[in-house]
Amino acid sequence: MISDKIVVYSAINRKDQLIADAARDIGSAFLQRNVWLTMAVYDIRMRYRGSIIGPWWITLSMGVLIGGMSVLYANLMKLELEDYVPWLTCGIVLWGMMISSLTEGCDAFIGSVQIIRQSAVPIFTFVLRVLARNFLVLAHNFVIVVVVAILFGFWSVSRPLEVAGGLLAVFVNLSWMVTLIALTSARFRDVPQIIAAALQIALFLTPVFWLTDQLPERPALLWLNPFYYLLEVVRAPLLGETTIPDAWPVVVGMALIGWLVVFPVFALLRRRVVHYL
Question: Would you say the pTM of this structure is higher than 0.85?
Fold first, then answer.
């Protein structure tokens, strides 16, 4: 009987220790922002090393893509450019950030194997590295949104504070998604291919190129799509439109449930990552 109690108490203490260590890891990573910000900036510089305009190639290529697709899709779907161009611009810029965060999240730990093995940097640092890198690219690409806002006049009806809140909500949701993807990718190397294939399908199920107003009603594939709500809480206030009533409850609920599920997984597997690599 006594030995059974000792085993139970030991298991409880071990669980509490794992949770405390995981919380400390995440807290330390956020406090060491100079580490993951430096890594993120370095990643972007290395990607465009030797280029004359550097990271602005990302913005230029996305601007050309938006310009070409605006004319093509507006004609195909019989839409007015003043309605479609702002919608498409915000959608592509935000979608590009989210999809890059998730696909690059697959390599968050795998691509940092040498640092993980040779230093005591908190594991969550590499999740923040991925997110910081893509939010910096988003800041670059936001120049396109500003130009389109001036040309089409929706800057006067935008709600900046709500946009900032939406971006924060997107960050919180992406953080648990990237954490889960990074952990599973380190353990199972088929996960990156699965994620890439799934995101290709998600692109066509998410209102990035097409408008929700074109649908007579919201089908299940739309209101069950988490990316729809993540886009909505940023794009709607950016365009000065009314956010759908269930967008914020869904986004906040996803963040809470997502972290409630992922945090215990992170606590359990955090120390095993180095052995997976």
Answer: yes
